[in-house]
Amino acid sequence: MPSPAQTIRHKLLNTFFSRHSIWFLCIFIALLITNFYFGYSPHYLQYFIPETLLNTIWVISIALSFLGLYDVLQNRHSILKNYPIMGHFRFLFEEFRPEIRQYFIESDQDALPFSRMQRSLVYQRAKNQNADKPFGSIVDVYQNDYRFLNHSLTPCVPAIPETFRISIGNEQCTQPYSASILNISAMSFGSLSANAIRALNLGAKMGNFYHDTGEGSISPYHLENGGDIVWELGSGYFGCRTIDGQFDPVRFAEQAKLPQVKMIEIKLSQGAKPGHGGILPKDKISEEIAQIRGVSREHDCISPSSHPAFSTPIEMMQFIQQLRELSNGKPVGFKLCIGQPWQFMSIVKAMLHTKIYPDFIVVDGSEGGTGAAPIELIDNMGTPLREGLLFVNNTLIGAGLRSKIKVGASGKIISAFDIASTMAIGADWVNSARGFMFAVGCIQAQSCHTNQCPVGVATQDKDRQKAIHVPTKAERVFNFHKNTMHGLSELIASAGLQHPADIRAHHLAQRINNREIKNYAQLHFWLKDGELLSCENKDDENFYFRMWNMASLEKF
């Protein structure tokens, strides 16, 4: 529920007329002075204002009126389309920012939640601009926890980025999918606007990478431009639910068999609010969203915190097998933010017991999140990506299943180094949500839950989302992916590697203190293949052995 201050802001500052007020004022002044010049004699205004000043105001108001018209008609900048004339102040301040940075509260490295450096990198790559930095790094390389890749004295020629793909689908899957190393993470229609979904999917089509639907189901906008789709199935079963919210196999099969749907992803939990389910504020539920999801507009759309279709690890494996059969053998996996470690191990034990293996697992870090969530959950619930990914990778290796199951990762992934460092600790590929939001035009206004997104990305306001010109923004989505893959190619080539799959833990190093640096192979504990399968009588002090022995097939 919006606060009184937010309500006042919406009523007074975020209406159509308030956003266009400066433009309308300029038009009014220009017409008023023009009327006095040509409609009256003598010129009464000159009795009160000197002629030179009056002429100056007249010329400026006419010029700004045409500028506002240009802003409304152009499709390059969303902020200018929604805030004609006023939006130029943002770009003006950006131009002056490096010179007067000391007068701004935020430094380049303050991650709130993404730093200026990170956002600028995405903007530059999305616009095909040079993202090189002059005069050396501004990062303190002697700070604790500073991370870097070890380069090789025999670097290789950078590989073609289009070859950075991974095949997803084990022997139980009849339609494996070749996925890009970088893809669009889960963001639902409803959380994002129709035009944002269109731009993301068209960009995915142009760059040959996939677009995760989020749990809000497959909308017409996901299908409009033909980009590859990963259908995320949340606990609300939107798009394949009965009237009472249960899973509907018939409706699922109808949509899962669409050629554009390449994989099915069961969402167990997400980084922003693990254990809480999904939330779509009622203010953002249009009639269209209500029909797509099959929900009411009278209340916030809340997905249950757990799945009605299964309640034990074994039932979950059976559900995975059911989805695989209903989709004619497409890859089926699940996404989760790691919580109680023995619960994930219970799922792995169920895989071994039933011999039903998911094709992939996506690990979502607690630093993730694009929409609304209670502050306590955002800040203090769930395992961060690095630790969660390391745990999942180790557990699958220890259970002897790593070769059967591919592992994806998501959580504040922006740059090529983010990708490389994530793959060094076990990921086969990565997904990015907010990175692609920046590419579409997001300015981190952090008003996603208010329906008042200033650039039309995270809103259902039809007037605001017109600011997103789909072809232009799709091109930026494509450029961001292309240039990031190019950056990754150059990065790993410096380490003597041809493909991201060759990145290992020893390639990534981290400063421990001002006297010590360790690579990740030294820094972390690594299980051997199949080591968990015979750990009943081994050292109880070992974290993995202890958690494995606590895990149960009968319950999470």
Automatic annotation (TrEMBL):
<feature type="transmembrane region" description="Helical">
    <location>
        <begin position="21"/>
        <end position="40"/>
    </location>
</feature>
<dbReference type="InterPro" id="IPR024188">
    <property type="entry name" value="GltB"/>
</dbReference>
<feature type="domain" description="Glutamate synthase">
    <location>
        <begin position="180"/>
        <end position="497"/>
    </location>
</feature>
<dbReference type="Pfam" id="PF01645">
    <property type="entry name" value="Glu_synthase"/>
</dbReference>
<dbReference type="InterPro" id="IPR002932">
    <property type="entry name" value="Glu_synthdom"/>
</dbReference>
<keyword id="KW-0472">Membrane</keyword>
<keyword id="KW-1133">Transmembrane helix</keyword>
<keyword id="KW-0812">Transmembrane</keyword>
<comment type="similarity">
    <text>Belongs to the glutamate synthase family.</text>
</comment>
<dbReference type="GO" id="GO:0015930">
    <property type="term" value="F:glutamate synthase activity"/>
</dbReference>
<dbReference type="InterPro" id="IPR027283">
    <property type="entry name" value="YerD"/>
</dbReference>
<protein>
    <submittedName>
        <fullName>Glutamate synthase</fullName>
    </submittedName>
</protein>
<feature type="transmembrane region" description="Helical">
    <location>
        <begin position="52"/>
        <end position="73"/>
    </location>
</feature>
<dbReference type="GO" id="GO:0006537">
    <property type="term" value="P:glutamate biosynthetic process"/>
</dbReference>
<dbReference type="InterPro" id="IPR013785">
    <property type="entry name" value="Aldolase_TIM"/>
</dbReference>
